[in-house]
Amino acid sequence: MKSKLFILCLASVALLGLTGCDMTLSNLTPGRVPENPSGIYTMSVKTHIQDGEVVAQSIQPQVVIDGVAHPMKPSNAGYGIYDFDYAMPKGQSEARYYYVLDYDISRKAGVKHEQMTSKLYDLRLMNRYVVTIDSSRGPVGAKIGVVGRGFSKYDQVVFDGQEIPTTFYSVNSLSFIVPPLPAGRNYSVSVRTGEGTLPAGTFMIDSASLKVLPEGFAMISGERAVMMVSIDHAAPSGGLPINIMTNVPHSVIMPEVMIPSGSRSVSVPLEAGTAGTGTIFVSAPGFREIQVPIQVSPKPEGMPEEGQPQWLHNQPNQDTYAVPGIPDAFNPNLHD
Asked: What is the pTM of this model?
């Protein structure tokens, strides 16, 4: 049993880089820390008493930075944690350090002094980092700011693992447009620089609303109309694909459409086919589906072959007629 305990002790020493088994140390200082204006950085270590014979009041930790030893003080962060505020010399961006722990062990034979030493650590300052993104959620097409330090015009925001168009404002500010992705879930956001990738947080895409005009169609076979689809924000780079489907495919003919990048709307030409009643379903990535009712009636007897409504036949301007179900302002068949 004693031999197993000794082997376990040696394994712990190898893992933690320490020289004894009465105490262990946990380094709480990050390897990379953001550079700050004061140039002062807190080094922290947590001690763990493994032997009940260690005299707690005798524990005296030090941090040796670039060969100079500095005593550490108890931290407000919790029991057994010790801190030292290190002033990084001007012009220096990294330091090497290790911890030295002095303590006493009280045994029947008397009090024995012990010392243990940690492994060597590195502290590096970052002059490029992300502080936060302006918002943690929003709809597709929303402009989101990124605040940090050390940005350049070559940096790219990475959304869900994919680089997206990024606007550079200053060394402290970037922005991006929320790309067209499914709503209702969180996506990782980071900034890719020439030196690596900086995490920025997560972003929730909220479901947005499409606007469709008119709200319904009553058409005659052979007639044409226009449906307007719009969004609240400008479409992102690459445009916003609009998915338009119907449950009466023989009654209405529709092309594939996309809201162009930077635009907020698109016109969708419709052509009435055979008679039928159904629904047009309009959706886009990150947007709630809109349902638009449509009714296509047979062509009345006597209607001209070109599709002009009978009730406007023989008007002074035969090229001008109204398309049922759509406001005049959006009607492509009305001319001056």
From this structure: 0.56
